[in-house]
Amino acid sequence: MMPLMVSAEDLELSAKSSILIEASTGKVLNETNADEKLHPASMTKIMTMLLIMEALESGKINLEEKVNISNNAASMGGSQVFLEAGSQLSVKELLKSIAIASANDAAVAMAEHIGGSTEGFIKMMNEKAKELGCKNTNFVNVHGLDDDNHLTTARDMSIMARELLKHEEILNYTSIYEEFLNKPDGTRTWMVNTNKLIKYYNGLDGLKTGFTKKAGYCLTATAKRNGMRLISVVMNEATTEDRSNDTIKLMNHGFANYKIKVIMEKDKNLGEVKVLNGKKEYVNLKLISDATSLEEINDDKKYSFNILVKPIKAPVKVGDIIGQMQILEGGIEKESLPITVMESIKKANIWDLYKRNLNKILIGA
């Protein structure tokens, strides 16, 4: 069956540029002018949040550590949470401010904290974009305020969003509709999510809106239903209603026409392999993650599998890649997934090997 691709005209989209992808595979399900360079506005903060999440994962920063608010951060215009110069807020509070309220002042504060300066952080942003294969992206700031050289594309935004969603914890912030930000001086700022669809569209839990005069209304959204996560991007819309309506059309198209099929669960026993010099002589195997397939909604494809594993040497632990499982469709390899062990096996000592050899002698093995 041929892939079901329809045009923006068929979906009656008003966006100047758009794309819809499935998150686990990155497969494009719909696109229109997806490589046209446009202003991203605050969708820029997807990259800002990605670098924050990477810094958290690496241990460079932690959620509870305090961040100094500079005069530069406090002076930011546009959407903001009115941070006071000289105050301190936690990484967690600033990340929430970016994800919920699209706060430019919070984005600058975090950029300075991680990159040493906004210039240092912008360099990190462009390096990360290049690493991800975003060929048509150039950042000149961390918040998305208009600049003639601050450009990206719908395709590149979908790539950045897909990478951000590998840090699933970000959804704990982008899915919040409203919350108060408590400040050191005792005042509170009420934050309401700029992405109204998280309240009204089933399964939608992110990701980032944007608006400036040059960018128009933009939205990179993500939603998950029945185990399938989609990412949509719409750019240069005339109104917030157009932005929301086009996002809904793209999401509805994806969920109505595609599915993720689990073709083998990660905890299924794939058989056993010999462990050289292990406390146990054999160990069972499993996949590191579920084997899935993106299919059209009415497909019922059949698959076969080849397990490719060599004898392994102890010690070996769960998570170590010790082989591959080939997934074949019609005898043709579709994908190859890593295999690990179902339990960790320590290296045998002399006494373990003596008992094993003695037992083999006694039973005539």
CATH superfamily of the largest domain: DD-peptidase/beta-lactamase superfamily
CATH class of the largest domain: Alpha Beta
Mean of the pLDDT scores?
93
Order of helices and strands, N to C?
HEEHEHEHHHHHEEHEEEHEEEEEEEEH
Strand count, sense and barrel status of the largest sheet are:
6 strands, mixed
User: Ranges with pLDDT <50 over ≥5 residues?
Assistant: none
Overview of this protein structure:
It is built from eleven helices and 17 strands. It is α+β, with helices and mostly antiparallel strands and about 375 residues long. It has a six-stranded mixed sheet with strand order 14-16-17-12-11-15, with no helix packed on it. It has a five-stranded antiparallel sheet with strand order 2-1-9-8-7, sandwiched between helices. It has a two-stranded antiparallel sheet with strand order 3-4. It has two domains: about 10-260, DD-peptidase/beta-lactamase superfamily (Beta-lactamase); about 265-365, Peptidoglycan synthesis regulatory factor (PBP3), Domain 2. The radius of gyration is 25 Å and the shape is globular. Helix 2 packs across helix 5, helix 4 crosses helix 5 and helix 5 packs across helix 6 (about 120-130). About 30% of the residues lie in helices and about 30% in strands.
